[in-house]
Write a structure and sequence with these properties.
It is a single chain. The protein is 46% helix and 11% strand. By secondary structure, the chain is of the alpha+beta class. It folds into two domains: 6-131, no CATH class; 162-236, SH3 type barrels (Roll), CATH 2.30.30.40. A five-stranded antiparallel β-sheet has the order 5-4-3-2-6, with no helix packed on it. The longest helix is centred in the middle third of the chain and has 27 residues, at 66-92.
């Protein structure tokens, strides 16, 4: 079961900045629309529609569920862009109406963010765009895999970063542990031959996980092999 972890959002600078920018545009649109009233009903559809997108995208990243909902997110984002462009066309061309110009400005900001999110949530995990975005991921003290898009989008932590093998001595592998989680390998990993506790796996392999705290997770493969695996190569499912 995936739990909400706000640190996963904070660890994704690109997504976090775009989310703040989206909220700024949404607030501008909302305040301007409140001062106008119900003159353009479609604007209110945009406002509530985009609010659900904000909540959905944030929850997907915070629960490491982008890989499960990326197609749904992209579908809703496409619908939102269509509504936004129609509303912008209806408001930006009205002369001597500063309040409508403010509505259009807020919608325009939101549209820029949504276009970025199409790339962020839609790009494949090995694409240049997503690898560049994930390269700015902030490591976490209790590091779980992020969301990026395969992540996600959704935020996936950069799997090319070397692991600190000096931390391995603090990880104790217990065969009798309760494996409460499952995780999918985002990338293949070759175990360090100098450490008998490390677990190697291939991309897409599903592992049983004891706890999702720390840089290394105790894991069990389907054949019963037990060891530790780097958390930024895995994503909870």
């Amino acid at each position: 079961m995936a739990f909400i972890d706000i640190n996963l959002v904070l660890a994704q600078p690109f997504f976090l900045c775009s989310l703040v920018l989206f909220l700024i545009g949404w607030i501008i649109t909302f305040i301007a629309a409140c001062t106008i009233g119900a003159w353009i009903h479609l604007v209110w559809v945009d406002i509530f529609y985009n609010l659900f997108i904000i909540l959905g995208a944030t929850l997907a990243v915070a629960t490491q569920s982008v890989h499960n909902y990326r197609l749904a997110l992209l579908t809703f984002i496409g619908g939102s862009l269509t509504l936004i462009f129609i509303s912008i066309d209806a408001t930006i061309n009205v002369s001597h109406a500063p309040k409508l110009s403010a509505v259009a400005a807020g919608l325009l900001i939101q549209s820029f963010v949504l276009i970025f999110w199409v790339i962020y949530f839609g790009a494949e995990e090995d694409s240049l765009a997503l690898r560049t975005i994930n390269g700015f991921t902030i490591p976490r003290a209790h590091g779980a895999a992020g969301t990026g898009v395969a992540s996600a989008p959704n935020g996936v932590m950069n799997a090319t970063q070397p692991q600190d093998n000096n931390n391995l001595s603090s990880v104790v592998v217990a065969a009798s542990s309760n494996y409460a989680y499952k995780a999918r390998a985002l990338y293949s990993y070759e175990a360090n031959p100098e450490d008998a506790n490390e677990l190697g796996f291939v991309k897409g392999e599903v592992l049983d996980i004891v706890d999702n705290k720390g840089k290394w997770w105790q894991a069990r493969k389907q054949d019963g092999t037990i060891g530790i695996a780097p958390s930024n190569y895995l994503q909870l499912i």
